[in-house]
Write a structure and sequence with these properties.
- The chain is α/β, with parallel strands linked by helices.
- The protein has one domain (3-163).
- Helices cover 26% and strands 26% of the residues.
- It has 5 helices and 7 strands; from the N terminus they run E-E-E-E-H-H-E-H-H-E-E-H.
- The chain has helices at residues 69-81, 85-94, 105-108, 115-124, 163-169, and strands at residues 3-12, 29-35, 40-45, 60-63, 102-104, 128-134, 153-159.
- It has a 7-stranded mixed sheet with strand order 5-4-3-2-1-6-7.
Length: 170
């Protein structure tokens, strides 16, 4: 059975000057990391509070590289969610498939995309509030430090704690 080990909610960044900001997030996209024999990020619309619920079509699914699972998730969002032209152009120099709805990065680029692709994403993906929740055994946990490179994003990291495991220790 596949398990969700990490989730990323992404919405427009809202400065504290914006009326009504309580430090929350009005997410427009949701990424789920599903793991079992192979991890895979699924990108879906996430704004459940609009007057019309989002249309749930087939999710965009990318199998991340082992070294860069969180950076691959942010790249999936930049390319298929935010559709950042500068990032799409740099990615297009290296990744030539006609459809990027399903992409196995680990198979094509086992060490991750070339450095230029991640650098373009770090530079051009900006103006978003990102909330990352990571489970204890998640592949994404090993890549948390990479988030510091994204200066244009407002990023929160929430690591989970199991109440059951904590109470069993007593």
């Amino acid at each position: 059975m596949k398990e969700t080990t990490a989730e990323i909610w992404i919405g427009p960044a809202q400065g504290s000057h914006w009326m009504g900001t309580q430090g929350g997030l009005n997410a427009t996209h949701l990424l789920l990391l599903r793991e079992n024999s192979r991890p895979a990020w699924m990108l879906m619309p996430g704004n459940l509070y609009d007057s019309k619920p989002p249309e749930l079509s087939r999710p965009k699914v990318w199998v991340p590289s082992y070294p860069h699972p969180l950076e691959d998730a942010l790249l999936l969002f930049a390319v298929m969610g935010a559709k950042v032209p500068e990032v799409r152009a740099v990615l297009g120099e290296f990744e030539k498939s006609r459809s990027r709805n399903r992409l196995d990065i680990d198979e094509s680029f086992p060490k991750g995309f070339p450095r230029q692709v991640y650098a373009a994403n770090q530079k051009h993906l900006k103006g978003w509030h990102v909330v990352v929740s990571v489970g204890e055994g998640s592949l994404a946990k090993k890549d948390l430090d990479a988030l510091k490179k994204y200066k244009g994003l407002d990023i929160e990291v929430r690591e989970t704690t199991s109440l059951q495991r904590s109470s069993n220790k007593d």
